[in-house]
Amino acid sequence: MEVPARAVSRRGLLKGAVVAAGAAAVGIGTTGTAAAADASVTATAPDGSTTITMSLTGGVLTWSAKRRGATVVDTSALGLELGDGTMLGRSGTVITNYQHWTVNNTWTPVYGRNATVHDWYQEMRWTLQDTATLINFSVQIRAYPSGVAFRYVLLDKGTATIADELTTFVFPDGALV
Question: Contacts by 66-71 with C-beta closer than 8 Å and gap 24+?
Fold first, then answer.
C-alpha cells in the first residue's frame, strides 16, 4: 500500500548546533549538560543498519528514522498532552542533560521461540524541561539492527494523566507500510 507524505497520528529540521559536547565525547556511558538551544542527536545501530534522530528546533521536538541509508520515517513530531492541557515537546522545550551508551548483552525470555535474545543497541537520552510549566521529562531513542524505538519518561514526583500522545509518523512518498 502506498502512503502519501503526511503526518499520521498514532492516536486519532535540523537547524542549529549538535550537542557538541555529546558528539565529541561519544563513548560508552557519556553524560553531560547540554548548552545548545537547538540540537540534534542520532543513535546508530551497532551494525550501522538503522538510525533514529531526535531534534530540538525552536523548542519543538521531532524525530526521523533511516534503514540502510533510506528514509523510512521523515521528520515527525514528538510529544505528549497531559490531562491539564500541557503539551510537552510542542514548544518551550529545553535540554537540561543528555546521556549516551551502547548495550551488547543477552537475556532469557520467560516464554517465546528463542532461548536467548541478543539485546544490542545504541541509546541517546535527553532530559528535557517544559519552560512554561517546569515539568521535567525525558525522551530516549534507541537504534537496533532490526529497527528503532523511543519512549517518553515523566521525571517529576507525583501523578500525571496522559490525555494524548502527539507523536506522528511522516512516511516518504511511495513508502510501503
Answer: 71/172
Name which of 15, 124, 146, 138 is nearest 68 in CA terms. Answer: 146
Structure pTM?
0.77
User: Is 54:78 a contact under the CB 8 Å cutoff?
Assistant: yes
pLDDT in tens, 56-97: 999 999 999 999 999 999 999 999 999 999 999 999 999 999
Q: What is the pLDDT of residues 23-57, one digit of tens each?
A: 323 334 555 444 447 999 999 999 999 999 999 99
Compute, in degrees rounded to 10, the torsion defined by CA atoms 145, 127, 82, 73.
-30
Query: Strand 117-130 vs strand 80-82: parallel, antiparallel, or unpaired?
Result: unpaired
CA distance 38 to 35: 9
Cell numbers at 28, concatenated: 560508552
Q: Which helix (H) or strand (E) holds 97?
A: strand 93-107
Give the DSSP H or E segment for 11. Answer: none
pLDDT at 10: 36
How many CB atoms neighbour CB 28 within 10 A? 10
Structural element, H or E, at residue 25: none
